[in-house]
Records
---
Amino acid sequence: MAKYYKITCSLLLIAGLIGGCKKDLPVDEDGLLITQRAECYVGNFELLGTDFVTVRSKTAVIDTTALTINVEVFFGTDLKNVYPQFSLATDCKLDPKIVGKVDLSDLSNPKTYTVISGNRLVKKPYKIIVKYQ
């Protein structure tokens, strides 16, 4: 009987330690983990056509001070149906979310995407400036 008592107590102690150490981690409205990271920037930018091949004629220029992304595309590119892809700093997210094709054809009114830091306190609006080759 004492043997079963020791085993039961040991199991209860282990279960208490495992359950007691677990904390609820904060998540945002998208279900993403909120961290302590304040970094907030775009590291790389890609622009794909409907065939999922790049439409850039050269590497995009990302200015983290002016908060702009200058991208030159091949002449004749259909900018009404492109897929922008951002590489962001760790734990960042993008607003608005990109869920499909995007229309970047209004060259006089560049589209803006906001990069939000991991701690959700820093927000930087990046303007995508598109030019034809």
---
Amino acid sequence: MKLFAYGTLMWPEVLEAVIGHRLSGAPDALLGYCRLRVRGEHYPVVVPEEGGRVEGILYDNLSESDFRHLDHFEGEEYERKILKVGETEAAVYVLSDRWRHIAEDSAWHPEQMLPQHLAAFQAEYKGWKDL
């Protein structure tokens, strides 16, 4: 199965910390969505937006076990949906409507993720492969 990552999981070292192994990915885009900042956090969410486009990374060959770890990582605020990404379909973690209040109205850009934020994510989620 495929995963489209648009936030912290775009960095392979963060994905590896969550699922326990490294995957390589390729740039791709999700149409019909926009990427927004989460209030008080360093990571984004995506929500539907007519005409929107979100750049990210498309990963392939994820297992059901990988998605169990990702579901836990993303939490109840997100819904895993199968959406068209480029020329294929992939799992995308979309902000649940009931959690829309956590999203700001301002866009989030990958360059806003500072090295110390990445290091904190890696440290927090390392070892989840044992779930």
---
Amino acid sequence: MGAFEDILLEGLARDGGLAMPSEIPAIDRPMLIRLSTLSYPSLAAEIISRFADDIDRPVLDRLCAAAYTVEKFGSTEIAPLTSLGIESGAPIAILELSNGPTLAFKDMAMQMLGQLFETALTRRGQTLNILGATSGDTGSAAEYAMRDKKAVSVFMLSPQGRMSGFQRAQMYSLQEPNIHNLAVEGVFDECQDMVKAVSADLAFKARWRIGTVNSINWARIMAQVVYYFKGYFAAVAANGLSIGDRVSFSVPSGNFGNVFSGVIAKTMGLPIHRLIVATNENDVLDEFFRTGTYRVRSARETFATSSPSMDISKASNFERFVFLMLGGDGEACGALWKQLAQTGQFDLQDTRSQQSAKLNEAWRAVKASGLVSGKSTHQNRLETIRDIDQKYHRVIDPHTADGVFVGRRYLEAGVPMVCLETALPAKFSETIEEALHRPAPRPKGLESIESLPQRVVAIGQDVAALKDIIAQRALQ
């Protein structure tokens, strides 16, 4: 391993920015046909090898086989597609991404990252201190993937009081000495800002070997690309279509990593028709895709909702998307983010700035990208959970309900709509009970998880205090 391994372990680029591959590999139709016959671990190896060609292929095959097992995900399918029915002439289905150890889609990438981290660190004889922020599910997925990794410790920031009881218990009940949970007085965006501030201190980052597992780490995006291919192939097969026919995906969106993985899959050549960005009341992304204006919200303007993992108003991976829409012009992208830092917004339809022609060209690229958006509210979630239960006898979580609600606006006859499941409903029982007047079904062994002893440290929005905690507890 070489260049990819460095990006994997460092998380951010060495200048503190987000890493992107120098080019997106293309996959043609004959290759798509071949990929459609593969098991999930083999498909993962094929996709990941195109971004990490410095990993020996036999090693990569072994790591993918270890990451995606029946024992971890419950079936050989790993990410099964469940057809619901036909609505407005369109087949609608759920891509099950939440059958892993922590019942959330983050397991799909995090189990792979655990294997990659362990292999790279063992080869180098090094340790790594992972620093991350979570709005609910990234934290537990990372901690469960790294809890048995002797060369890795995890410092995970979460917004105090803004996760469900199940989510808190899943994280805070871990007692492993290499797992450190820190509850921040604030919202997710402020947790994420603290992670970025520590990572931007290059001397501190190097001294304590700080890495990341948030979707700011390119490896997370890369691993998530795989399930778009899996979902596409399954939708084509289920509906008697041919490779090359169109499929749309509706994606509950918070930090934009999930849907950006779909952007990469589409750029590679996967025949995705629409990528639907489904937001909750924190609708910064919906506003952008409707108007061209990206306007971040303050912590005071960020709502606490019943789909808490999407309570995000500054989506890190959105910067990667804008970079692509600008044709890979890093200077123009940097200028926009400088403007964002100064004014809190930018507008790709601006006709007054010196770079208006460049911005307007980027907006045309956005409109041609196939990305559309919509917003869901608490009432929409309740009604969607109730409707899916009554029509199809399936209980979905509130985030997946956001995706289904918004996805239904974009149904087209003959075009399958794949809604990405983000978590199992057991993680959000309060909302499920409000919608269905009965408890959410719980997997065996997790009936009383909230009663387990919890271990967490409260911390303010204090980067210096965070650094002190890392220095005291980090692996050397």
